[in-house]
Every structure is written in C-alpha cells, then in structure tokens.
Amino acid sequence: MTQFLKNSKRWLPGALVSIALIAAILYFVDFRTMLEALRNADYRLIVAAVALAFVWMFVRAKVWMTLLRDRPSYKDVLFTTGEGYLLNNFLPFRLGEIGRAFLLSRKSGGMKFSEIIPTIVIERTVDLIFSAMIFLFSLPYVVNAESSPTLGYMISGVMVFGLVTMYILARNNQWALDLFHKLSARFPSLQRIGGSFLESFFQGLGVLTDGWLFVRFLFWMTLNWAIALLAYYLMTLAFFPQAQLLWAIFGLGMAAFGGAIPSAPGAVGTFEGAVVFALTRFTPDESTALVAALTMRMYNYLNSGVIGGIGFLSEGQTLSGVYRQLMNLRNNGKAEE
C-alpha cells in the first residue's frame, strides 16, 4: 500500500489530466452524430490506413535497426519495437522505452542495455524535432499569421540542443570518461558501475559521429513520418470527404504533442483532445472529429497489439511479467545485461 501511494504521486497527475480531458470532450459531443459518422464513413480508406499501420511498424523497426548499426536481427528489432509500443499503450511512466532496451538486450546477445538506450534517446529526440517541424509548418495556415509559435520553437531548440550535446559527448567520450573517473575517485563502487555504464552509453552514441549512418537514419525516419501522415490523411478523409492534406498535417503535429503531455498510459484523453482540437480548427463538427480521433487511436493500437503480441507470445512473456521486471529494474537503478 505504501509503495502504491508513493507511485501515485507520479501517475496521478497524468491520470487526472486524462480524466478531465475525456470529460470535457464527452460533454461537447453528440453520440447520435458519432453513430451517423460511423455509418457514413468510407471504410475503404480506413482499411488502407490499417495496412499502412503495419508498413509504418516495419519501417520504424528499420529506423531503430539503423541506429543499432544492424547488429541485432531485423526480426528481433521488429518484435521488440512492437513490444515497446504495446508496453507504452498500457503501462505508466513511458516504460515501453526502457522495456525496448531491456528486452532487446536479452535477445541480441551482444548488445548491452546501456548501449541500446542511447539509440532510443536519439530516436525519440528526432521524433520530437519532426513533430515540432510539422507543427510549425502548419500553424501559420491554421491560426492568425501574427501568432507566435513559441512553444514549437522552444521544443525544437531544446531537442536540437540535446542532439548537439550528445554529439559533443560522442566526439569527446574519452575526456568525459576521464572527468567522471576523476570526480568519482572517492566512490569506488560508483566509479566501477558508472564507468562500465558510460563506456557502453558512449559506444551507443557513436552513431552520431558516423555521417553516412546518420543520413540513412534520417532517410528512414522521414519515410516513417511520411507514412504516418498519409495514414492520418486517409483516416481524416474517411470521415471528412472535404478534408485537405493540411488537416492531417496539423492533426499529426498536434497528436504528437498530445502524446508528450503527462497523462494516463497510452496518452488516453490527451491524444483524443489534441486531434479533436486540430480538426475543429477546420470544421465545427466535434462529434465526427472525435470518431476520427478514436479511429486514429485504434490505428496506433493495432500494429503494436499484433506485432508486439506475437513477440510476447513467442517469447513466453506477459505484460504483467515484463512490468514487474521493469519496475525492479527501475527501483534497483541498474540494468540487467
């Protein structure tokens, strides 16, 4: 009970945000209009978007595999990617990101947890940069041109600064290691454990110093975002035949930011709120916008549910089992290699 109350300080604020947004959305929508939107939807477009959901996951695995320098097998990376997104959909604290590194370190055989983590940090950082770019591109067309997209610029700036910092550390890893050993000289155990972790961590950051590798990574990442944009456009068209590509661009940008807001697992409430807000910049039909948002939610669940579920079944894992292992990992402050 004590541990539950302690953890509640971390998950309760996000859960309250999700509950408040869900209540606000449900207050304004009309359920009859939602049912009518479901009846009139173009399901051919939805089926096409569902197919793209799996293409998106296959390409996302290639994105991560490129950062991993093709060391694990594509099969392991694909299923671990699905497992990570599945964990994020149902578990708190974004444990899916730690879960990906944890699970892949047990499959690959030759890669350590601390070596895999930097690749996930780089991937998620570039994801946020892409979402900020999409948001900034669409914003002038959606709101008054005199409005200042301060938030988007701030997020872009912070993410670019983070990438530059990681690049500098990767280029000067020996200096950073020497500095760590000097500062931790009075704490032998910290020096031993921390030094081993940092060596693997800097090895993972080495992808930033390989120009051709990073170009390949950006190519696959750009393709991945283009597939997501096309899928969101098809789902928007399924409910709003008059929709233009700009609707999907702004919707995708807002959805990415909605997923970053503290909330219940899987960005429940914040994702739907962000998409409904985006679509209602172009149409007053909040009810149909919510149906489109829920369809996009299913799109996000489908690929991770199928691919991640197959991965868990083939490995004899369960969500609850992995959750316990990750909480032990987090509480102990060290990764199993």
Model regions low in confidence, pLDDT < 50 over at least 5 residues: 1-5
What structural class do the secondary elements suggest? mainly alpha
What does the overall shape look like?
A: globular
Structure annotation, total helices: 14
Number of individual domains? 1
The helicity comes to over 70%
Arithmetic mean of pLDDT: 79
State the major sheet: none
Q: What is the rounded Rg?
A: 21 Å
Instruction: List the helices and strands in order.
Output: HHHHHHHHHHHHHH
Strand residue percentage: under 5%
Count of individual beta strands: 0
Terminal CA distance reads: 31 Å
Describe this structure in words.
Helix content is 81%, strand content 0%. The chain is mainly α and 337 residues long. The chain has one domain. Helix 3 (43-67) crosses helix 13 (286-315), helix 6 packs across helix 9 (188-205) and helix 11 (245-260) runs antiparallel to helix 12. It is globular, with a radius of gyration of 21 Å.
Quick take:
The chain has 337 residues and is mainly α.
Features:
single chain, 337 residues, 14 helices
List the SSEs and their pairings.
Elements: H1 2-28, H2 31-40, H3 43-67, H4 74-90, H5 95-108, H6 113-142, H7 150-171, H8 173-183, H9 188-205, H10 211-239, H11 245-260, H12 270-279, H13 286-315, H14 319-332
Helix pairs in contact: 1-12, 2-13, 3-4, 3-10, 3-13, 4-5, 4-13, 5-6, 6-7, 6-9, 6-11, 8-9, 10-11, 10-13, 11-12, 12-13
